[in-house]
Amino acid sequence: MSPGAQHPDDTAAQPLRSDAERNRGRIIAAARTVFGRDGLNASMASVARETGVGIATLFRHFPTKEDLVAAVFSDRMDAYADAVAVALDDPDPWHGFTAYIETVCAMQAADYGFADVLTMTFPTAKALEKRRDEAYEAMVRLINRAKAAGRLREDFDPSDLVLIHMANAGVVNATGDAAPDAWRRVVALLIQSFEAPARGPLPPSPEHDALYKAMLRASPAGTTAAKPDKSG
User: Fold this and answer.
1) pTM for this predicted structure
2) DSSP state, 177?
3) Among 122, 135, 145, residue whose Cα is nearest residue 212
4) Rounded to an integer, what distance in angstroms lies between the CA atom of residue 154 and that of residue 232?
């Protein structure tokens, strides 16, 4: 056989790789629908049903729920980080700060899954957490700019943004389709409370480690579940 000749198995192997890639894409699309509708507590079995594949096929592509979450929300986390960059480019620090909060809370309201992602942490999803860390560092700069402009109360802490996401996720999940715009009023009330001059002191902000533990505890069961041996 000449070096350039095709091995008999090559033509069979290529369609399998293409099928696998198509299945992966279908799983991600289905998970986006399921998580966006039901939040991250939706089961892997419900994603498999939405996709129309067996649970074993799902776990071959995504051994843990955390792997699937990272694949589904990588673009959302990019958009989240981009929102901070846009806010930093705003010549008005206060407007940039408030517009960022409104933008990200709107992203949460549009996608129940993403509403959950911002209130949780996924230690093994390195790329997802790296983007979150980058966004956090940019948010610290955003906060400092707004304080330097004299518009943001001095005792506002970066951890308060995490609490905002938690509060907004709670409102979004509680009101749902019954009152889909209720989150807007809550966010407006919060923003007005952030503006300087402050009317009074705030209680201490939670310690970083405590807040991290809260986000870790909020992560849905099964994000680090082992791959099953048999299909269900």
Assistant:
1) 0.79
2) G
3) 122
4) 55
Mean pLDDT for the chain overall: 86
- E strands present in 63-196: none
| 3-state percent breakdown (helix, strand, coil) of the chain, nearest 5 | 70, 0, 30
Nearest to 101 by CA among 146, 52, 70: 146
- Nearest residue to 156 (alpha-carbon basis) of 137, 143, 141, 142: 143
| Rounded distance between C-alpha atoms, residue 110 and residue 60, angstroms | 30
Amino acid, single-letter form, for residue 87: A
- Taking residue 231's Cβ as centre, other Cβ atoms within 10 Å add up to 13
Report angle CA 217, 58, 21 to the nearest 5 degrees: 120
pLDDT surpasses 90 at 143: yes
Q: What one-letter code names the amino acid at 229?
A: D
55-103 per-position pLDDT tens digit: 999 999 999 999 999 999 999 999 999 999 999 999 999 999 999 999 9
**Residue 170: helix, strand or coil by DSSP?**
helix
Burial class (CB in 10 A: 0-12, 13-18, 19+), 176: exposed
Residue 197: asked if its preceding bond is cis (omega within 30°), the reply is: yes
- Residue 20: which of 62, 64, 67, 69 has the closest Cα? 62
Quickly count: other Cβ atoms within 10 Å of residue 142's Cβ.
24
Give the containing element (helix H, strand E) for 116: helix 112-117
- Half-sphere exposure of residue 90, counting CA atoms within 13 Å on the CB side? 22
Residues 6+ apart with CB under 8 A from 22: none
Q: Which tokens in the block code for residue 168?
A: 């907004």
